[in-house]
Write a structure and sequence with these properties.
Number of domains: 2
Distance between the termini: 103 Å
Keywords: Coiled coil, Conjugation, Transferase
Order of helices and strands: EHEHEEEEHHHHHHHHH
Largest sheet: 4 strands, antiparallel
GO molecular function: transferase activity
Shape: elongated
Number of strands: 6
Protein name: DNA strand transferase
Structural class: alpha+beta
Family: Belongs to the MobA/MobL family.
Number of helices: 11
Length: 448
């Protein structure tokens, strides 16, 4: 595809994994916009500023349960209902390299099209009005005014709307194909799930990770995966023990196994044959003895009450770990964008000193650095506009404090896991006693 703005030809034919590409247009769009080159050259020509945003990109994962034809039908329906019917031109490409990650990239135009097929304005001037609906003088012979968008396409609330629409479309497609609807656009937090979400790596970090180069975001995700695994394991253990101890504690007094009987029974559990196994078994017995003695547990009711306390403590620790990990992910991203801003700031300053006749060539040669600088600058500006201060050193100090506290909480969580393992020996012993009781021969009384 030839860019008529700079005369450069871009060859995408060798880009692998593209299984389908298509342009969808609103009814009043010029038919020639169905040609990708004509569409995007027209978009470039209408924009005059160097930093103009030319398009909006949306990326969405496609369900692997659907066939290629079903995935295409899903994308077409979603694009038509949410973008094309609103007046946007959409250029989408479905990628699938066979690695289990089918997804779609959707490029959307930002300017509205007039009924005659010409590009309209992105924004217009609107006058400020007083309480009587009259224009307000600016003291300079004119009127106070502001700029407002000509469409609602840039509303921040659209992100939520488009995500919800994608979830709904995907679930309908899954159900039509005989699969359960499993897609939920809401975050773990909004769904009441204390699972830590991973951070988005982005293309640069993803490529580095694939080459074996460890990145900050990759390290965050690895720690998040380890935390989630630990939390899931402990939750499963504590739920089993809570339900078991509750059922045992509710039995009549004479039917409850005593702690002495359980202790003796767990001592008789099958012993490992290996030296390492025997040592581990002795350590587990010692841990169980210490747990019972330290908590003064002498009955099943007391054991159940302790496990209930541990369950409460588990949720407290999990909440703190999840909260810390989420905050660390946010601060890590801020720090990376600050580093990116400083790394390419010099190139941006050099551009300002370049003579006008050489400016275009400089931009071509340093397009990657300038794009990364602009992305970082835009991110930091939005952060500042939201009321946050740009304080990289404070961000790092907070990360260090959160990491230290999370390590303490994680140590407590791991200690709880060891206690739960010890109590599981009692449950196994109770199961063994119950089997022995069932297997006892019944006294049928004297034969007549």
């Amino acid at each position: 595809m030839t860019n008529e703005w700079d005369g450069m030809t871009h060859d995408y034919t060798r880009k692998g994994g593209i299984v389908h590409a298509e342009i969808m247009l609103p009814a009043h769009a010029p038919p020639e916009f169905a040609d990708r080159s004509i569409l995007w050259n027209s978009v470039e020509q209408i924009e005059k500023a160097r930093d103009s945003q030319l398009a909006r990109e949306i990326e969405a994962a496609l369900p692997r349960e659907l066939s290629g034809e079903q995935q295409l039908a899903l994308v077409r329906a979603y694009v038509k209902d949410n973008f094309v019917d609103k007046g946007m031109c959409a250029d989408f490409a479905i990628h699938d390299k066979g690695t289990g990650n089918p997804h779609v990239h959707i490029m959307l135009t930002l300017r509205p099209l007039k009924e005659n097929g010409q590009w309209g304005a992105k924004c217009r001037k609107a006058y400020d009005l007083d309480e009587n609906g009259q224009r307000i003088p600016d003291g300079k012979g004119g009127w106070k005014n502001h700029r407002e968008d000509t469409t609602n396409w840039n509303d921040k609330g659209n992100v939520e709307i488009w995500r919800a629409a994608w979830a709904a479309c995907t679930n309908r497609a899954l159900e039509a194909a005989g699969h359960p609807a499993l897609v939920d656009h809401r975050s773990y937090k909004r769904r009441g799930i204390d699972k830590i979400p991973s951070v988005h790596l982005g293309p640069a970090a993803s490529q580095m990770e694939k080459r074996g180069i460890r990145t900050d975001k990759g390290e965050v995700n690895r720690q998040i995966a380890a935390d989630n695994k630990l939390l899931k394991e402990i939750k499963a253990r504590i739920t089993r023990l809570y339900n078991w101890s509750k059922a045992e504690a509710e039995k009549p007094e004479g039917q409850q196994p005593s702690m002495i009987d359980l202790w003796e029974a767990q001592q008789q559990l099958k012993r490992p044959d290996t030296r390492t196994g025997k040592i581990r078994a002795l350590q587990e017995s010692a841990a169980l003895f210490s747990f019972l003695q330290a908590n003064g547990i002498q009955s099943m009711q007391q054991l159940h009450e302790k496990i209930a306390d541990m369950n409460t403590r588990y949720y407290d620790l999990r909440r703190e770990i999840v909260k810390a990990e989420r905050r660390i992910a946010v601060l890590t991203e801020r720090g990376e964008m600050w580093a990116q801003y400083n790394e390419y700031k010099t190139v941006h300053k050099q551009l300002a000193r370049v003579k006008p006749e050489k400016r275009e060539l400089f931009e071509q040669r340093h397009s990657r650095e300038l794009i990364l600088y602009d992305a970082a600058a835009r991110y930091l500006k939005e952060l500042k506009d939201s009321g946050e201060e740009i304080t990289p050193k404070a961000w790092q100090r907070e990360i260090d404090l959160l990491t230290a506290q999370k390590q303490v909480d994680t140590i407590d969580m791991k200690a709880m896991r060891e206690e739960l393992k010890a109590v599981e020996r009692l449950r196994k012993a109770a199961d063994q006693l119950a089997r022995q009781e069932r297997d006892k021969p019944r006294d049928r009384g004297p034969e007549r």
